[in-house]
Amino acid sequence: MKNTIGREIPEKIDGIGKVDLFIGAWEKLKKGWMDEITIPPPNKAKMPHQCKSCMDLEKAIALTNPKNGMTVSFHHHLRNGDNILVKTIDILAKMGIKDITLASSSLNQSHDPLLKYLKDGTITKIWTSGLRGVLGKAVSNGLLEYPVVIHSHGGRVRAIHTGKIQVDLVIIAASAADEEGNATGSHGKSAFGSLGYAMIDAQYAKQVIVVTDNMVDFPCIPISISQNFVDYVVKVDSIGDASRIATGTTRITKSPLDLRIAKLAADVIEHSGFFTPGFSFQVGAGGASLAVAKFIREKMTRQGLKGSFLLGGVTSYIVDMLEEGLFRTVFDVQSFDAAVSSSILNNKNHIEIPASLYANPFNCGCLTNKLDVVVLGALEIDTDFNVNVITGSDGTIRGASGGHSDTASGANLTVVVCPSFRGRVAIVKKKIHTIVTPGETIDVLVTERGICVNPARPELEEKLIKAGLNIKKIEDLQKEVESIVGVEKEIEFTDKIVGVVEYRDGTIIDVIRQVKN
Amino acid sequence: MKIIKKAQAGTFESSDILILVEPVSGNSGRKIEIDSTVMKEYGESIKELINSCLDSFHIQNIHLIAKDKGALKPTIQARIETALKRASQQ
To answer: Does residue B64 fall inside a structural domain?
Structure first.
């Protein structure tokens, strides 16, 4: 079967069941209610003054009665410094638990040691926003029997509400917590900032364990995770490698290519009609994307223009813009550098938000729906403006869906920034390996070789041409790139599906097939 | 052109290619080894380009090692030509 954007997807997929095909970015949402039912969160009870503290993680996990086939979830705010996820699976494996569904909000290089558990059947299914490193390679080469499900940050919340992901046990790492399980990531030696992705798990998981390396006197404030959801609390020596959690401030790129693209993107935003008093803004933390913030900051300062809110993954650069008074509020679902933590703690206008408020499509208005401008990256983009952020040029999984499709669908102006090619690999292509974000939600592509406007937005194109920007047809840009890098040999895939890409509304937008070696 | 000694051109930098060449004894033909970050996408095209460069300099017997980090065609041609010229000079 083909979905509405022409991707070939089987009617049924092993481990997934009958496929609900993508039908358009807003088709499912526009009637205003959802047919999917919401599963009830568990009912639990504790006796007055009952102690939740456990000596160690092993004991706490044993108390939750782990069993074969269980779903275990985690949050990825500790970035590359996380050692709680691997430690937990180590413990479960030692207890002989098999067939685990791993449902971390995302996975990164710090989770490479999980490879052995994918091989020996300890972990047999994975739900995640992203997959990289050795795990991405191994999955792409067909290691798992069932495909990995890739979701967006908003889509994950929806999947938990509707019971597609039913979490048996969540382990929430926190940089500070009290004996009742009130917990936060905003202070302590391992401070990492927002706990936004873990909040939904705390509400829905059958068992909730809070792990901290910094037990504080009751009550632990701010209450990012609230005690009424928490079963057990464990004190450990370390929740991770502080040097990797606390990555310091994120610097603006010095790459002339990225800066050139970022400057062009800022010009696009300025002349788009959305650069007005009270506008809202989100940028990624990557090279060109974050650099756009630098040029927007300069333009706002020069023109005395003030915005309403900044959203998303938050870097210290974003906090600087808040502190300068350029924006009134920061909504923070994930902090990208450690310098952000103290701002969450001390600035009342820097607000930690749950992933549901950030981007869940199945509610009465997530914040991405209120966005004016978002700037996003891309691994590949095709001539229909569809974007790939999950598979690399060799067809293997090495990225993350993140909030890409959530923000693109919500924002008034979605700008994709990327070089037209990297090394010898074309980024702007006729056909891309995997679609994560549909082209109908992308408005402008900005590259060093020109700016392309989605033909569905002629009024925007007119404005940008009037501003004197170098506007090209995306088909022409694609041909130009091909004439420079040459025609690449098509990567060969087998029929085996190793990954399923869910759109934020739960429909299947694409599948990832096994790379032929 | 006659290859009389070992030579190299290029770097290990991204978007460049390192070419190493050395003479081989007698008529043992071309021995070409390619390692590339874009092997799947461009491995064959790099090999074709190397062979056509060697053809244009009339070199039938050579040992050539290419370590590519995504170089564009003109870069590859220039690095090969430089390596060959270096290898053919006393």
So the answer is: yes
Q: Taking CB atoms and an 8 Å limit, are A486 and B43 in contact across chains?
A: no
Per the domain annotation, does B2 fall within a domain? no
Residue A40 and residue A27: Cα distance in Å, rounded?
A: 26
What CATH number is associated with residue B19?
3.30.230.10
**What residue of A is the nearest CA neighbor of B42?**
A488
Backbone angles phi, psi at A327, to 5 degrees: -130, 155
CB A423 to CB B69 under 8 A? Answer: yes
Q: Average of pLDDT values for A374-397? A: 96
Percentage of residues in chain A having pLDDT higher than 90: 93
Domain that holds residue B38: 7-88
B1 lies in some domain: no
A-B CB pairs within 8 A amount to: 41
Do the beta carbons of residue A140 and residue A511 sit within 8 Å?
Answer: no
Of A395, A424, A484, the CB nearest to B38: A424
pLDDT at A248: 60
Tell me: the pLDDT tens digits for A278-312? 999 999 887 899 999 999 999 999 999 999 999 99
How many domains are there within chain B?
1
Q: What is the ipTM of this complex?
A: 0.88
Contact B45 A486 (CB under 8 A): yes
Q: Does B38 touch chain A (CB under 8 A)?
A: yes
Q: CA A39, CA A273: separation in Å to the nearest integer? A: 42
Q: Tokens 């096994």: give the residue.
A: A514
Residues B18-36 have a mean pLDDT of 95
